[in-house]
Amino acid sequence: MGQKTGFKKGALLLSTLLVLSTVLGACSTDKAGSGTAAGGTDQITIMLPNFEAENPPDNSPVIQKLEELTKMDVNLQWVPSSSYEDKFNITLASGKLPDVMVVLGKSPSFINAARTGAFWELGPYLKDYPNLSQMNEIITNNASIDGKTYGIYRARALGRNGVTIRKDWLEKLGLEEPKTLDEFYNVLKAFTKDDPDGNGKDDTYGLVASKFTGPWDNMQIWFGAPNKWGDDGNGGLMPAHETPEYMEALKFFRQIYSEGLVNKDFAVMDATKLPDPFVNGQAGVMVDVADNAQRMDQKILDKDPTATGHVDVLQAMEGPKGLRDMPTSGYSGMIAISKSSVKTEEDLKKVLSFLDQLNEPELQALLGNGLEGKQYEKKEDYVIPTTDKLALRDVQGLNQILMFIPEDKTLRVQQTPVRQKVAQVQKANEEIVIANPGEPLISDVYAQKGPQLDNIMNDARIKFIVGQIDEKGFQDAVALWKSSGGDDYVKEVNALYAALK
């Protein structure tokens, strides 16, 4: 939808349909639209994706409990996740929007719709709600469009990254867990050269990596490189690959590659194969999301139930600028409120009150875990989920409207030592994450040329690591990046950044 008038026309077509309002005096009990039910209960219509094969039935006891607790008549419009983007775009184009829509990402269509007035700008209102007022500043900025908040983000761990390591190998070699870059290098070397599995063979190495770029991006931050965009010294932004810290990181990567401390085939290894060398006892370190550690721990235990305590998870390694970690964006999509159906501030505040309430522990547990005695049983301070597929259907997909603000308060399954350590690492990481100042800036140049620009720098990084090019070759790649649209990209980002500031 390119013009604001399109949304106005759509709103006129709707007349009193899809309006969450007692003020407008709607008396319908029709669940297809929002308004006020005959019994005085407010109605709300929500469009959301389902990643499961079946939707919860309308009379699901979990949904009934949700309506009882929120005093809302909740109409859920389920869309299969595989076709959600298409349905989202069709709905936007029609102008007939539900009250609330789950937005999976900052797609061009959502950005355009937000800019042309299809959704409420929520920033000025959030301070009035006990949970929503606690939205994380970095994540709110990451999820924003032109610095404005058009949706409540669905939170994910911001400090999610960590270092998964073979604890049994450290113990076998009498090594402490590494904390600095030098110690990290020494551990990689010992895991490669000193027979950590004790089989007398030269068949192990330190770090396992794949063609997924995340670990290299993450380790660059340890060396002091910025997260995608850094301060250019004049109040503007410069790309990370033009900083000296980025080159220091590259030299380290090149060194560990040349010494055989990382797998030689990393540039072509499929990311799905990444766990295999770690679980099979070939590699001792993975730089990935911290929760990877609990999956590796489980895979090793599945192979050998006696292999307890083989896996540990650590924070970032301390570099020249101290402890630094690359955050995730901190969210997975957001929940937006349409202006075509939620017409007045009074209506908006009712919807925000409803969304705020979904962040209460009781509602998080309801939508995330279900009902005690039906979807789970309680045992001490954890829960045991049911295996009854019919009971699970009643709660499937309802977590898609959870925002976890200020934090995830759903009920936990039994915690292993590794799971507990993962939670500690991710929490501690929140203090050391390096935000990307360019995250809220929507670049037209990048929309057109982003993949090409990214490929130039990713290829150059790999070629430098494996020794195919030297520093001059890398600078040649930077020059190509600039002439292929990079200069225009930097110029546009800085104009957007100046306007945002």
| Radius of gyration computed on alpha carbons | 25 Å
CATH hierarchy: architecture of the largest domain: 3-Layer(aba) Sandwich
**What is the number of helical segments per DSSP (H or I, 4+ residues)?**
17
Q: Major beta sheet, specifics?
A: 5 strands, mixed
Q: Which class best fits the helix and strand makeup?
A: alpha/beta
Mean pLDDT: 91
- Taking the alpha carbons of the first and last residues, their distance comes to 28 Å
- The percent of residues in helical segments reads 25-40%
Keywords: Cell membrane, Lipoprotein, Membrane, Palmitate, Signal
Pfam families: SBP_bac_1 (PF01547)
Signal peptide: 1-26
Organism: Paenibacillus xylanivorans
